[in-house]
Amino acid sequence: MIVISCPTGHPTHKEEHYDNQDACCKELKRLEALVEHYSHPGIAPPSARMTPSLKINEQPQWKSWHAYKYAFFVASKVTQMTGDALAHTIWGPRKKSWGIQMTLMSSLMRGAGKHTELMDVPSIRTFMGMGGFGPPPADALVTPVTFQVKRRRLRGILESLDAQETGTRELSGEWLVGKRTWQRLQTEWKAAQVGQRTHNPHKPTERVILYIHGGAYYVGSAEEKRIISVPLAQYTDARVFSLNYRLAPECTFPGPLHDAVSAYFRLTEDLHIPPENILVSGDSAGGGLALALLMYLRDNHYPVPAGGILMSPWVDMTMSGASWDSNAAYDVIPVFSPDDHMNPIANYLGSGMEKYLMHPYASPIFGDFKDLPPLLIQSGDSEVLQDEITMLANKAELAGVKVRHEEYEDGVHVFQTFPFLKIWHVAFMSMRTFVLDTLPQLQRGITLVFPETAERFMETEMDSDASLAVSADGRIASAGVKGLEEDSEDHSTLYESDDDHCTGCGHGKTWSLEQHHPDEPKVKISVIPPSSPSTPPHEAALLEKGMKRVSISSRSSSRSRSRSRGRPIFSEKPVPAAPHASDVDTAWQFWAS
């Protein structure tokens, strides 16, 4: 696991360098020991908060004289936020790297789950759909798309749902491309129209990302999550298809999984995009759904995508991690009582609670991860899902998956939705590296061809009168599509930093990302050190060429890393792995000249 932090100069927050090394290492061992509890689907872990037999309370009936509860809630929340803002100003933030925006956001959401008598699903959807104000710049192109769901003779758990399709049901979504990508595509498409397209051996592999939005399975949409999908398209130079799947409680599991599978097969079968050119991505519930999609494709012997990018994936519906309590005071997720009528788990599983609570496609942490494609997993150390995501990464690695888990210090749940955070840019830069550098290294020896038919289908679908120009935060741009003709550029470089670290598990060994702008904060990247000081033969050859090893792989492995210009790759030859992980034959590296 890689731990990424943002040092702060606030006088009340001194940098901690893990003085208590025993406590640091014991915490890692504690989480690894819990993995065994998630190896038996159908058997809840001892610490489970949700159980299959749990009875859900009915939604209380609203009475007109209950209006005073709204006034009390608003008054108490204003008081709480005011107190937190004053405390932030006087004594410093509750988390050392937080600005006032994050302090207020955490304060707003803290304790909201205790007032569910004032909520219902439609009201939450309305709240989540509120957008920003002001005329934003044009940063990306968005093209809304509606398509019919075909019967595809699906196997496994989706066989009965697939058999019910008549070809009349519709799903929607939207294509997103960044400004730079759109300019490149326009040039290539125009050249093809006049027969001037030429082969460029240095052109990066065309990537398409199927993005599945989060929102606890009952709120959210592709439009609302442009705050993630737009920078995802910008940073990765990929075409992103953001799916609107059916939401709970109107549609329960496995309906949303059926929609995700349908969207994937539309890309591969209808648009003729090769699976090896596709990645799946998702945040929160969408991250869990993206992982379930990968597992379903593998289990039923369909071609799987090239990789996955999971942002704070929700993978354990039993809510058994201790971080649901320890991080509740900091995270932006409203923590509902298990028997509450607003509990998203009950809404998503519906009458299938007893049957599906620990099903691997609903709670992927209970599944088998063998033969899944490479995964980039990002999470925060201040989110309530911290424990289950850590166990997910550990369990996937033990199954032989090439996985990179990045845990961001002071990061809340899906911190990628908060551009004002210092770690936001670092997270998307890591996604860029994963897509543009890591996957090409993993796919060496595989001929990747983006068919002309796929290019033509996508050109027709994306270059449409319905297309909109949007800003990086998803709002419609005032400049329109013409605003995409303007150019922009972004650069960043990496430099090494020397800090104390835990010699047992490695927390605290850091490197920083320095922006060309002097006002940008420095960002530290902590990694896990080697369990053995020996240098593998293939790495010795790199060292002889002047390259430098500066980091290694995740907490349960002794795989080595090195670093160069911020481009992570996997090593070419096997590196000694941790016990019970003999099938893990590659390691993350950064290389440096």
Q: Please report the distance between the alpha carbons of the first and last residues.
A: 24 Å
Approximate helicity band: 25-40%
Tally of helical segments: 16
Question: What's the number of extended β-strand segments?
Answer: 17
Strand content: 5-15%
The spatial strand order of the largest sheet comes to 10-2-3-5-4-6-7-8-9-1-13-12-11
Which structural class fits the helix and strand makeup? alpha/beta
Uncertain spans, ≥5 residues at pLDDT below 50? 9-20, 132-137, 487-523, 526-593
Which descriptor suits the 3D outline?
Answer: globular
Radius of gyration of CA atoms, rounded to a whole number: 24 Å
Report the major sheet: 13 strands, mixed
Provide mean pLDDT, rounded.
76
Structure described in brief:
With 593 residues, the chain is of the alpha/beta class. Helix content is 31%, strand content 14%.
What does this 3D model show about the protein?
With 593 residues, the protein is of the alpha/beta class. It is built from 16 helices and 17 strands. The chain has helices at residues 21-34, 67-91, 100-109, 121-128, 159-163, 179-193, 226-236, 255-270, 285-299, 323-326, 344-349, 353-356, 386-398, 424-442, 452-462, 537-544, and strands at 2-5, 140-148, 170-178, 208-212, 239-244, 278-283, 307-311, 375-380, 403-408, 468-470, 492-496, 510-515, 523-526, 551-552, 560-561, 568-570, 588-590. The strands form 3 sheets. It has a 13-stranded mixed sheet with strand order 10-2-3-5-4-6-7-8-9-1-13-12-11, with helices on both faces. A two-stranded antiparallel ribbon has the order 14-15. The longest helix is centred in the first third of the chain and has 25 residues, at 67-91. It is globular. The two termini are 24 Å apart.
